[in-house]
Structure formats: C-alpha cells, structure tokens
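lol forgot to send this yesterday, sorry. struct tokens for the thing we talked abt
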C-alpha cells in the first residue's frame, strides 16, 4: 500500500553540501538547496552590476575624450580660421586683399565662410572681424550672394550672427560705434533674402527696440534703426504669409517694448511706412487666439493710438476699431485702476497708487476726446449696415467707459450730443440706438413673451459651452452690445431730464407751442416707453428670480479684461461669448463684451427703477403695468417668502461665525507680523471677496422671491408687501424676545431668565433698567439720546418711559404702551418741528436732513476759535452725527412698533431709504432738486433752456455753499463739482453735465455724512432689505399711514369700548356710540382726519386698516355733562366722549374740541 516504505523506521540522514550551517538541523534537504541557489543568484547579480559599471565608466571616458578632442580640434580650427581672417584684414593695400571692389569681393568670398564658423559673441576680437566682413559686404552690395558665389542660407546665418553681436553689445558703450554698420547691414540683408530663407524676426525686433529706446544716438544710427524696423513690413514682393509674420512680430516684439520714442517726427515716419490695416489685422488675429495677457500690451496700445492719430484716413477701416477695442479690453483692468487712482483725491502716497507712464496715460486719454468719438460715430454712419456696426461700436464705447471711470459722463455726454444721419434724416443718437434695439430679435422676443428671456439666456449658456468658437453667434453680441449701450445712454438722459421734458415726449400735444430741446428730441414716446418697460421688467425678473439656474448651467471659460463697470468694482473677464467662469464654487456669467452678470443686471435694474420712480412720482403708465403676479402662487406667497428669509438668515449666521473666527485670528497677530504678511493678507482678502460673492449667490439661490422683493418689488402688490414687512417684524420680535411679544411678558421672562425676580440688583434688573428712562418734558430728545444711545439695536426691545416735570416729579400714569407711544411721537415732534437744525422742511413741509448742518457746525467752531482737527473739533462733529443716527433709530422704532407719526419726508430722502438695502443705488437727478430747493431748481431750468451762449455767463464747474447759520451774516465757501472744476468753463455743450453735477452735490454729496448716519441708525432697527421693498410714496405711508379716504366702518369694527359704553350681552351699541358713528359718517374726509389726529396723533389710517392700529382705537364715557367737550389721550388712542343725547350736539362739541386743540386730561 505504501510503496516507499523500506521496512526501516529510522529517519533518513540529511547531508548538507552547501557549506552553510542550516538554521534547522531537522530541515529537509530541499531547503538547503533553495538557500544555495539564492546566494548564487545574488552573487551573479553583483557581478553583472560591476561589469556594467565598468563598461559605463569606459564609455564615459571615451565620450569625454571624444568631446575634448572635438573641442580641441574646433578650437584649433577656429583659431586657425581666426588667424586667417585677422591676416586677411591686417594686410595693407598692396596685398591681394586691397580696398578696390574686385579685391573686396574676393576677400568677402573668402571671409564669409570663416566668420560663420569662427564668430563667438564672448570674444571681443570676433566682433571686430565681423565688422570688417560686414563692411566688405556692404561695399560690394553683397555681390557674392547676388551672383551665387555663396549660398543664400549663409546670408541668413550671417544675419543671425549680426543680431547676436548687436544684442551682446547693446549695453557696451565702447562697442556701439559698430552698431550703425550692423544695423545698415540688416536693413540691406532682409530685402534680398529669398522666401526660403527666414530671419528670427522676434529677436530681430527686440534687438532693434533695445537700441531704439536708448538716448543719445547719432543720426546715422537712428536712421539705420528706423530703416531696419520698417523693411520687413514694407516689402511688397514678399509672400503674404511672410508679410503677416512680419507685421505680427513688428506689433508684438517691437511695439511692446517700453519707452520707444514714438512721438512727433518719429511717429510720423513709422505711420507713413506702416500699413495700419495690416497692423490692425495682425493684432486682431493674435489677440483672438490668445488666452492670456502679454507683457508690454499697454505700450502696444499706446503706440498703436499714436500711429493711428498721425495717419488718419478718410475711409477708416473698421478693423482698426476692432484692434483698438481688443487691446483696450485686454488691459482694461489695469487702465481702470490707474485712472481711478489718478482721479481720486486721496491721501495715499504716490508710490502706493497704480499709475501709468505719462506717454501711455496721454495717448489713452486721447481716446475720450470728442473728435475721436465723433470719428467713430462717422464710421458707424458709413458702416450702418455692416457686420460690425452699430453693435461693435457699442462694445467699444462700453469698454471706454469701463477703462475711464472718471470720464464716463464725458463719454456719455459726447455720445448724447451726437447726431446720426439716416435715410430719414439726422436724428439724435438716443433715438438711433432705440430704433436699432427695437428691431433686434432679442428685444422683440422679450417684450412679447415674459418667459422668453430665460430661454434666450439658457440657450446662450448651452451655445457658449459647445465646441463652436465663442464668436460663432455674432448677432448675439451685436444685439446685446447695442442694447447695453442704449441703456447706458438712456439712464444718463433720464438723469438730465426733468418732468416737462420727459412728458413732452410722451404727450407731444400737451407741449404744443413750447420750444424744442435736445432732451425733448431724445425722449421716447408712450408706445416706446411701454415697450421698454416691458423689456426691462421681463428681463429683470429672470435675472433675479432665475439667477441661480442661469449661473449654474454655464461652464465656459473667460479671460481677463473688461469687468462689471456698471456696478461695483469686480473681477473683469473678457469673452466673446456669453459664458460663465467658476470662482471657488461660484460662477460669473459673461453676457458680452466682457460684461459680467452682476454688471448686466445692475444696468437693467437702474434703467427700470428710474422709469418706475418717475411713474410712481407722477403716474403715466397703466395702473397695474408693473405687476407680475401671474409668476407667483399668490396664495402661498407670504409663507414662501418667510421660509426663504429664514433660509437666508441661517446662511448669514453661518457666514458670520466663519468671518468672526477669521477676524479674531487676524487681530491676535502682532502688528509687525501683519505688516510683513501684507501680501498674504491681500490674498486672504481676495479669497474673502470670492467667498462673499459665493455667499451672495447662495443667498440668491435660497431666496429668489426675496431677490425680487428687494430689487424690483413693484411686481408684487403693495398690500402683500406690507403684510410681508409686518410678518418680518413679528418674526424678528419672536427671535429677539424668546417668543414673548408682549412687553410685560418679556420683562418677566428677563427676570426669570436671570433668576433676579426677588433681587433688586440682579442682572435681569440691570437689563430692564437699561430699557427704562426718566424723560423731562422740554428736553425729550436730549434725554432720550443720553439714556438710550448705548442700547443700539437693543432699542427693538420694549422700553419703559416715565415722564417727569421740571421739578423731577414723575407724572401720573403707568406705561402700558401708551406712554411709550407718546414718548416716540414727542421725540420726533421735537426733533423735526423745533429748532434743532438737524432737519429742514421744503415749501410743502416735507422734511430732509439739513445739507449744511456739518458745514455750519464747522464754521461756528472756527468762529469760536476751536482748532480744526482737535479733540473738541472731532467730538462736536461726532456728536452731531450721533444725533442723526439716534433719530434714525427712533424712526425705526416707530416703524418697528407700528406707531404712526405725523411727519412727511421729502421723496428724494425716502428714495435713499429704499436704496440703502441694495448697495446704495440712489441716483440724484434734477427732478429731486425740485423738492430740495425750488429756487435752485428754477435756476437750473432757466440755464437748461437758455438760448444764448452759456460761456457769456462765466460759469465753471464749482458751486457755492453757505456755511453760516440762519440770521448770521452770510459766509460761503466754493467747492469743485469735479476735479479741477474751477478751470473748466460751462458751455452750451456741457451744461447738462453741470446741471447734473449741481443736483448730485446738493442731493447726495453735501448731505452724505448726515444721511449715512441717519440710515445707519434706521438700519439698526429695520433691516435695510425690508425697506427696499417699497418706493418713496409707499415708505411715507409706512411711516405716517394711509392717505386714502378714512374708512369709518373699518374703524368702527376695530374700536374698543369701555365704561358705560362697553357692549353688553345683547350686542347692541350704546345710543351715544351710535350717534358718534352717525356723525362720523356725515363728516367730510378732512374732518374725519382731524378727529383721527385728535385721538391718535396722526391723520392717516394704518396701511392694512385699523386692525393694525396699536393701541386700538378706544371710546369711553366722559360723563353726563352736556356742555362738556370730548377729550383724548393720544398715548393710548382713547376718546373720552360725554353721553350726548343728540347728533347735533355731539357733532358741534366734537368739532369744537378737535379744532380748539383740547387734549389730554385725567378726568
């Protein structure tokens, strides 16, 4: 069964023949064999490696010897050739190498091959020999090459050697004497080279530029440089491809070098010898194919402008404008930064500001010259039906306005003043561009269908992500550029247009007989206005409501260039197509001409709001023209908006936590380390900006309805927005007060929360004491400021007021809410109606911040001898602004608590409230000036309509501000409306700008600090984004109530009765109460308002009806005395009405009490 069994059970002995002791004496013989084989293989591997290393060393030694022998042979041969050359050029005239033509030809034939193999740039003697060889060739007119004695390729090599020699000696003053000859040689060589032989033109032009920008050149060298520079581009018999390469290198290797003396005669020389069309074509081709900037492009742009100014053509090719626009777009961010720094009157040091060389700055500034713009307009007229215009012209103007932010209005003004000749005659540029855009496919589609805008933008997104070139849809770019330029121009015109001019275009028959003006001829008809507002409304809705979808679907790449110049400063990207680029999780949609999504949306919004504000001030459109309720589910709209607000709040709170952590880490660093890490801090700031932009996109995605309410709220009915506003306040109260809305319950919760119910000195008592105040009548505002200033946004919580008399004795009464109302209304009354100098009223008794308040305060401090800039000086200014801020908090507190105040604010001031929540978008215009200063407004109108020469009036761009207080001798100061305004006269051409700047100064610049302080205080109580849901008229209704007719039945339904008048179980009103309502129905609306003001302190009803009146309207009995007058307690909205028996007596007594001002008593 076991064939291997031998019958012996003894274990077989293992014999180890390997010479190594086994680790296991009982191991099998097979394991020993394996170890032996491993050792043998390792040894063989080591032997092979040693042999390989030996072979490699031997081969290396052979290579070294070979290289050395080759070097030695070449060195010796070169030395021999150099000696031969030296001998050939060191013999006298009697030798075979004399100086006659035949001998020079022979010597050059002999020397050229030798110099080609001998020349070394590091050997000075070789430069001398090269000079002698080139001299012979020039003397013989390159005879040996023309006759074929030497190969043409050797001439190409010789040109290369000459370039190397020139480049090597450019910084060597001792060798510059040879440069003229070398440059003349290059000028002579290039024309005779056959097409098969090429020169490295990049090195060629860079070397020429290096010499050209050196100063102190003699006339021969300078002439040689100029001739050498133009010869490659001037040859007519060269192939097209060679000429294209020549112009390409001339542009990007020569004209990109700094400090070339291209001005005056030098610019005229190059302009007369360079084909500007071919140069422009080369620039366009290169820029179109590039994805990144090249160093020196600003210099190329400046030289290009200089050359083009010298060589003007009657028929200007459009390719020039294309090249200019592309170069501008590439460097637009740098240009904008530099010109912004130059125009800002800042205290920064010169070194810390981005500045441009004077040559570049001068040439770039010439682009905004009126003649330049008019020349481009003439191109537009000539090429009206071409492929590039007017869309391309529009893109160029948009680029100009971005690059020169300080000259934006000048550019718009020159464009506005231009007339364009058409087949129908000459028309203003505004009308021309309107005709163009109204015929575009994009405009027509968006006007006719509110849903088409989303489809158009989404389609372009998909097209931008396709493999097609970004410029594959020229219609898209032409149409959008024209639309954008029209909107820029029309917004500018709206700023200059008063209501008379505006409505003269809408209703020409009403203005029959009035003289025409530029503004009136630039206006749009009612039909056009309706179409434009529909376009803006439909497009704006999509840009806000569907922004997340539009941005997320894009994925194209963009390149640096033009950015969002129409809005806040941002990263600029220039792209041919509508694409979007990702930025750390965010995306930037580029519509056209490098205009990014936010800039595009801001411009559309600005035009839309300016028309809406004019319509809201003086209606001219149909009643429900602006509404877009069909886009929403209005039944669930309120709940949806509240949910979006909660989502956005959560995003902001998370972001605030991250920001606070970062800021704390930065603050902990020592000052020295922060200075040394300035570059890192800049990078962190850039990341922070990107993060902020991503957060804004996230907020927009989380709240599309909120975006609509904040930026174009007029598409939602006013009543709905008021409900949303009240709901936001209610939710804010719930969050801040822990769910305890009632003031008494909140106070009790504070005491319970801090465990200080029985402790008079506990933290809860301290919180409540900070929300309590003793106010003395006659100094209510100052007492309130002193006691409540430290609360800041905690003023939102319930406050408790105790009025005291002049002897500091508390008045009778308990603050159950009524005293707080009286306190708030009294503060506003004292601040606005008494002589505090904080606010002033216009002729219609509408209030606005005193624009001269700070100027008057500064002047009074100077008169008092206070040193400007001292501690007392700053403290006085700070105290003044603190009063404005506190008054803003008080107004916010009234709105927060639903307390109406009988104060009317000026419309332009309320517009600033509405714009505070959307990046301060208020734009001053002449119509707002009407509310501020009627006399100044009329003066501006007379100036606008002046038919004579404005220059005769000797006006300049300055304005005189009065700094003395009323009643004092008049003292004034003069201020510039624009930089160097005192040196710029007002002319017939620029007077619209002057009027616009006067309005801007009076409405925005002069009261800026006061307005900002007031809005800062208002924003502490009322979220600015809540205020942005309303226009100026709607905000006034929020503050002071509804100005519509008093609804007596609504007041009756929400009235509370007490005392004898309390309604019993039968549900019937007291007979006197019935008489009261009978009398109220019979009163005129003005008398009803008088009664309402008598009881509630305001003549207007709450916006959502009397159900919103806090405290509720109340009536209680005032006794049986028929001769007694009714009395009121306005703090609790209480009317104490005696039990009159007849309606006639009740009416007479009521009206007498109302008109006589009988008020509060304690009976």
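and heres what i got for the seq, position by position
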């Amino acid at each position: 069964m076991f064939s291997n069994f031998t019958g012996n059970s003894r274990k077989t002995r293992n014999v180890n023949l390997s010479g190594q002791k086994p680790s296991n004496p009982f191991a099998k013989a097979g394991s020993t064999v394996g170890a032996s084989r491993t050792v043998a293989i390792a040894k063989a591997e080591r032997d092979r490696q040693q042999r390989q290393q030996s072979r490699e060393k031997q081969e290396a030694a052979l290579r070294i010897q070979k290289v050395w022998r080759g070097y030695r042979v070449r060195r010796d041969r070169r030395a021999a050739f150099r000696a031969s050359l030296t001998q050939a050029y060191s013999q006298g005239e009697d030798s075979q190498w004399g100086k006659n033509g035949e001998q020079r030809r022979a010597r050059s034939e002999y020397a050229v091959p030798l110099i080609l193999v001998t020349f070394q740039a590091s050997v000075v003697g070789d430069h001398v020999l090269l000079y002698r060889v080139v001299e012979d060739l020039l003397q013989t007119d390159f005879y040996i090459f023309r006759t074929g004695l030497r190969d043409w390729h050797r001439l190409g090599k010789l040109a290369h050697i000459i370039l190397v020699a020139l480049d090597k000696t450019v910084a060597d003053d001792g060798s510059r004497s040879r440069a003229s000859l070398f440059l003349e040689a290059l000028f002579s060589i290039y024309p005779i080279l056959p097409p098969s032989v090429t020169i490295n033109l990049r090195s060629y032009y860079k070397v020429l530029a290096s010499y050209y920008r050196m100063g102190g050149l003699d006339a021969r060298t300078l002439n040689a440089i100029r001739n050498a520079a133009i010869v490659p581009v001037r040859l007519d018999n060269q192939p097209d491809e060679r000429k294209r390469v020549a112009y390409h290198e001339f542009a990007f290797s020569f004209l990109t070098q700094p400090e070339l003396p291209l001005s005056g005669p030098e610019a005229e020389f190059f302009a007369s010898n360079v084909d500007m069309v071919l140069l422009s074509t080369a620039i366009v081709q290169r820029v179109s194919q590039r994805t990144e900037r090249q160093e020196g492009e600003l210099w190329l742009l400046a030289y290009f402008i200089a050359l083009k100014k010298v060589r003007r053509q009657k028929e200007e090719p459009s390719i020039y404008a294309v090249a200019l626009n592309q170069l501008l777009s590439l460097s637009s961010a740098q240009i904008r930064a530099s010109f912004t720094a130059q125009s800002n009157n800042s205290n920064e040091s010169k070194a810390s500001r981005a500045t441009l060389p004077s040559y570049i700055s001068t040439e770039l500034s010439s682009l905004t010259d009126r003649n330049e713009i008019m020349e481009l307009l003439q191109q537009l007229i000539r090429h009206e039906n071409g492929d590039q215009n007017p869309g391309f012209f529009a893109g160029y103007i948009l680029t100009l306005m971005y690059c020169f932010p300080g000259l934006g209005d000048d550019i718009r003004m020159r464009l506005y003043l231009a007339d364009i000749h058409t087949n129908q005659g000459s028309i203003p540029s505004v009308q021309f561009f309107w005709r163009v855009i109204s015929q575009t496919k994009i405009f027509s589609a968006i006007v006719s269908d509110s849903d088409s805008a989303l489809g158009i933008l989404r389609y372009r997104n998909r097209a931008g992500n396709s493999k097609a070139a970004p410029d594959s849809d020229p219609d898209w770019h032409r149409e959008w550029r024209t639309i954008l330029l029209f909107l820029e121009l029309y917004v500018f015109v709206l700023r200059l247009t008063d209501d008379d001019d505006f409505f003269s275009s809408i209703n020409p028959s009403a203005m029959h007989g009035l003289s025409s003006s530029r503004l009136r001829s630039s206006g749009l008809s009612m039909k056009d206005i309706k179409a434009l507002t529909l376009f803006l409304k439909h497009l704006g809705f999509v840009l806000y409501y569907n922004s997340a979808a539009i941005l997320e679907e894009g994925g194209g790449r963009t390149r640096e260039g033009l950015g969002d110049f129409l809005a806040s400063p941002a990263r600029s990207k220039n792209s041919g197509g509508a694409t979007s680029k990702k930025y750390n999780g965010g995306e930037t949609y580029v519509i056209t001409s490098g205009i990014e999504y936010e800039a595009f949306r801001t411009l559309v919004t600005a035009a839309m709001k300016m028309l809406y504000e004019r319509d809201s001030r003086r209606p001219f459109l149909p009643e429900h023209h602006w509404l877009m309720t069909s886009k929403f589910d209005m039944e669930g709209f309120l709940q949806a908006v509240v949910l979006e607000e909660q989502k956005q709040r959560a995003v902001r709170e998370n972001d605030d936590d991250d920001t606070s952590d970062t800021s704390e880490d930065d603050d902990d660093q020592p000052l020295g380390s922060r200075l040394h890490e300035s570059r890192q801090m800049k990078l962190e700031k850039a990341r922070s900006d990107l993060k902020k932009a991503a957060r804004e996109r996230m907020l927009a995605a989380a709240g599309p309805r909120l975006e609509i309410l904040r930026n174009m709220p007029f598409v939602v009915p006013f009543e709905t927005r008021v409900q949303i506003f009240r709901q936001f306040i209610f939710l804010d109260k719930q969050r801040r007060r822990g769910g305890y809305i009632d003031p008494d319950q909140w106070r009790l919760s504070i005491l319970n929360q801090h465990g200080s119910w029985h402790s008079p000195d506990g933290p809860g008592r301290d919180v409540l004491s900070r929300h309590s105040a003793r106010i003395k009548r006659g100094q209510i505002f100052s007492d309130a400021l002193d006691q409540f200033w430290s609360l800041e946004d905690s003023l939102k919580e319930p406050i408790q007021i105790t009025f005291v008399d002049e002897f500091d004795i508390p008045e009778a009464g308990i603050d159950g809410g009524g005293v707080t109302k009286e306190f708030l209304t009294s503060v506003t009354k004292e601040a606005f109606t008494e002589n505090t100098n904080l606010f002033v009223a216009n002729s219609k008794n509408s209030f606005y911040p005193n624009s001269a308040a700070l100027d008057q305060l500064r002047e009074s401090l100077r008169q008092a001898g206070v040193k400007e800039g001292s501690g007392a000086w700053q403290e006085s200014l700070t105290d003044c602004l603190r009063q404005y801020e506190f008054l803003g908090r008080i107004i916010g507190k009234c709105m927060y608590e639903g307390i109406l105040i009988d104060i009317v604010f000026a419309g332009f001031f309320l517009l600033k409230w509405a714009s505070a929540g959307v990046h301060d978008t208020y734009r001053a215009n002449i119509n707002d000036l009407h509310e501020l200063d009627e006399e100044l407004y009329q003066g501006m109108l007379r100036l606008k309509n002046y038919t004579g020469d404005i220059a005769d009036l000797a006006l300049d761009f300055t304005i005189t501000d009065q700094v003395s207080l009323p009643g004092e001798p008049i003292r004034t100061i003069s201020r510039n409306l624009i930089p160097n305004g005192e040196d710029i006269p007002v002319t017939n051409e620029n007077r619209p700008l002057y009027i616009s700047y006067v309005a801007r100064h009076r409405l925005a610049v002069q009261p800026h600090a006061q307005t900002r302080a007031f809005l800062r205080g208002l924003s502490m109580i009322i979220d600015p984004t809540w205020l942005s849901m309303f226009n100026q008229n709607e905000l006034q209704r929020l503050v002071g109530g509804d100005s519509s007719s008093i609804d007596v039945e609504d007041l009756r339904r929400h009235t509370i009765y007490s005392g004898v008048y309390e309604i019993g179980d039968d549900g019937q009103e007291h007979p006197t109460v019935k008489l009261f309502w009978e009398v109220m129905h019979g009163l005129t609306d003005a008398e009803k308002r008088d009664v309402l003001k008598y009881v509630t302190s305001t003549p207007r009803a709450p916006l959502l009806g009397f159900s919103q009146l806090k405290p509720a309207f109340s009536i209680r009995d005032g006794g049986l005395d028929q001769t007694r007058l009714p009395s009121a307690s306005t703090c609790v909205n209480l009317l104490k009405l005696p039990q009159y028996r007849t309606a006639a007596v009740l009416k007479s007594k009521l009206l007498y009490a109302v008109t006589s001002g009988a008020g509060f008593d304690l009976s």
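Residues 29-88 form the longest helix (60 residues). anyway ping me if u want another try
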